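SAMPLE LOG
Freezer: B-3
Tube label: C17
Construct: single chain, 294 aa
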Amino acid sequence: MTDIAQHRMGMRRRRPKLREGVTAGLVIRYLVLIGTVLLTIFPLAWLVLTSLRNSADIFAVPVRILPASITFGQYVAVFSQYGLDGYLWNTIIVSFATVVLVILLAVPCAYSMARFRLPGAKVIVSILLIMRMIPVVALAIPLFAVFAAIGLLDTLTALVLAHTASKLPVAIWLLMGFIQDLPKEIEESAQMDGASTLRIIVQIVSPLIAPGIGATAVITFLFTWNDLLLALTLSSSEAAQTLPVGLTNFVSQFGIDWGAMSAAGVLMVIPTLIFVWFAQGLLVKGLVSGAVRG
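STRUCTURE (predicted):
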C-alpha cells in the first residue's frame, strides 16, 4: 500500500504545470473556450467585412480576409436603392410594441396563476405548455384568416397582435416560476398595510422579478425582431413589412446583391446588440435588488 501511495504522489508531482496554480487542463479549457468564441463571432465579423467591400472585391479569387479597399457605398445603397429605412422603422415599432404589450399582459396573468386558486388552473398551465410547443407556422394561416376578416391584414397592428399572441404563453410560463419563488410573507405584509393587488404587483412583485422580466423582454424582442414567417404572411406592402422581409428584396432573378445584403444584415444586428446590452443592465439591477428576498 505504501508503494502505491508513493507512486500516486509521484504522478501528481509529474503533472505538467505552466506555473503555480495553472494546470494543462485549465489551459485546454481556456483554449476550447476561446476557439468557441472565435467560431461564434466569425460569421458576424465576415458579415461586417463583406459589407465594407466593393463588388469586385467580394467575388475576388483567391478570397481575401481583409478587403483591399474599404467602402461605405453598400450602406448608402440599402437606403437609396432599396429603401431599407421604412422596413427598419416598421421592425422597431413592431418589436418594442410587442415587448411592452407582452410584459403588461404576462406579469398580471402570471401573478394570478401563481398566487390564486383559479378553477382549471392545471388545465390552463397545460394549455400554456402546449402553446409553447406549437410552431408558429401552424398559427400563421389561422391568424391570416382572422385579420383578413376584421380588416387588419397588412397593418402593423396585426403584426403586433400576432407576435403578442405567439409570445405570451412563453412569457407567462417563464414569469410564473419567478413569482412562485417569491416569499408570500412580503405580499401579506403589504396587504395588511392596505395595499391593493395592483399596487403589490407594480411596486413589490415587479421589482423582485426584474431578472425574469428582463429575460422575457430579451426573448420576446429577439424572436419578434428576427421573425420572417408572420411578417411575410400578414403583410404584402412596404407600409407593413419588416426588416427580415426587406432582406428578401436583395435576391432577384438576376442574382444576389451580396454587398448590400451584408450591409442590411449589419444594420439588422446593431439594434439587437444595443437592446441586449441595456437588458443586461436590467438583469444585473434586478438580481441586486432581489438579493434581499431571503
